[in-house]
Amino acid sequence: MSNQEMLDTLRDTIVTQNINGCAEATQTALDAGLTAVEIINDGLSPGMKIVGDKFEAAEIYLPQIMMSAKAMNAAMELLLPVLEEEKGAEDEGVGTAITYVQEGDIHDIGHRLVTTMLEANGFKIVDMGVDVQNEKVMEEVEKNKGKKLLLVGSALMTTSMLGQKDTVAMLAEEGLRDSVKIMFGGAPVSDAWIAEIGADATAENAADAARVALNLMQ
Amino acid sequence: MTEYTPKERLSRALTGQSVDRMPAVCVTQTGTVEQMEACGAFWPEANNDAEKMATLAEAGHTVVGFEAVRVPFDITAEAEFFGCEIKDGTMEQQPSVVGHVVKTVEDIEKLKGYDLSQSRIGVVCDAIKILADKYGDELPIMGSMIGPFSLAQHINGDEWFMAIFTDEAFGLALMEFTTDFCVGYAQKMVENGADTMVIIDPTASYQLIGAEFYEKFVVPFHKKIIDAMHEVNVPVVLHICGDTTQGLALMESCGVDAISVDQNVDAAAAVANVEKAVIVGNLDPVNMLWNQTPETIKEQSQQVLDAGIGLLGPGCGTVSKTPTVNLQAMIEMAKSHRY
Q1: Would you call B192 an interface residue with chain A, using a CB distance cutoff of 8 Å?
Q2: Residue A82 and residue A101 share a domain
Q3: φ, ψ of residue A184 in degrees (nearest 5)
Q4: pLDDT tens string B150-162
Q5: Interface check B210 vs A, CB under 8 A
Q6: In sequence order, what are the residues at sequence separation of 6 or more whose Cβ sits closer than 8 angstroms to the Cβ of residue A49?
Q7: Where does the B12-binding domain lie (chain A) (predicted)?
Q8: Which value does ipTM take for this structure?
């Protein structure tokens, strides 16, 4: 199989939600000498892009996206250790993304998708999970201060979205605001809200989030 | 001109009969901090105590001016009833479901044989009784519950979205179970005096699951609840979040009387996409009702009314910090609207 054929197979296993097939194709590509970066950037990531586009076009829905994300995870489990070896401990790649769901909110569908997408796009991920207090977010930002750092918060409920305003205010108070770019997402989040609370960006969907995140880090 | 009580007016408006003007009601949650301070019944206590729940619901009428009373203020009592771990709410935040109890068909069996007088399900029914005794002749008494699809997601976790794709037998079994519960719970609310039923089924969004899954895993189950309510002459409002524009015809096929849409839906398109369901909504609860002035809210209300909305209200649950004057601006616009 040519390299291009292997990459196409990787892309297709993501699009067709083939979890086992995706892991197998990843192993095959690694064995054939492709780098983890090539596998992600030229195989898996284009697959996830197609998945995002299909969701936007209402051709597929959440059940299929979650299965694609699961296929992506199966590949990433094999690739993460290889990636570290390839890049060496010093390299920051595109940056580090701290992802979390605002306190009081346990809707993690969007959060998981965005985390997966960012990971697929080369971010080192610190996944803080759901229902995270702002104090914990501050600690994590402090810990990663000095890196190319992106904070990615989601809130699916209007009530929990209120906490995003406090996150930005607390980062400013702690003198950490300039150490980190901030993206917020979730159904109730709008550009107007982002501007009002002084965050940096939001995105339409998980696929778009990866694009916006890469732009922010440049 | 015929004068109706608010109760008659809403009932007529929801069932396609002529009325003198638009009823001013809110089908989604009504609790706000200003109302709590005015009536002395605060979250989270008002979620767990029937007297306090009724007091805060009453404030929606006496403090704000809604022409109905409505309980409860959250959608976690049902999952809590089945043993899901709940993270308590605060004065400003609603409780949330953090633990899940069903993984398999066998797990569903273990949950059967429940007693509807228990837990917060019983509290909500008691609160309805208090409100119905006091206002039942005059005001609509709205009972609200989570819909069967979102309840299934609460008790199964987010794996639920993959389950409907990969394990249809389990998916349908869990839907049967949650729907039977919803029917029983709704009937009990009606026995206690509820005259209008609201089903909040946020994750059963067409935007999230699309037509195929919606038709198989949502429509027949909503229909079962609505048929049971229509047997006792109770109209039903269905609220689902997200951009549901393309799904409205399918959502209506369960026989529901009214559909509440969120701010992502164009009101005129929504009205055009249904046959006879009353479209309810859809002022943005955050960027409009919470964060704008009464003047801006009136302007936006006029646009939504001009688009042909059937009942003016928030596009989702009212944000707890929403100022009373903002809600009153919306109410004033609804009351002065003639169809």
Answers
A1: no
A2: no
A3: -125, 145
A4: 999 999 987 898 8
A5: yes
A6: A207
A7: 94-218
A8: 0.82
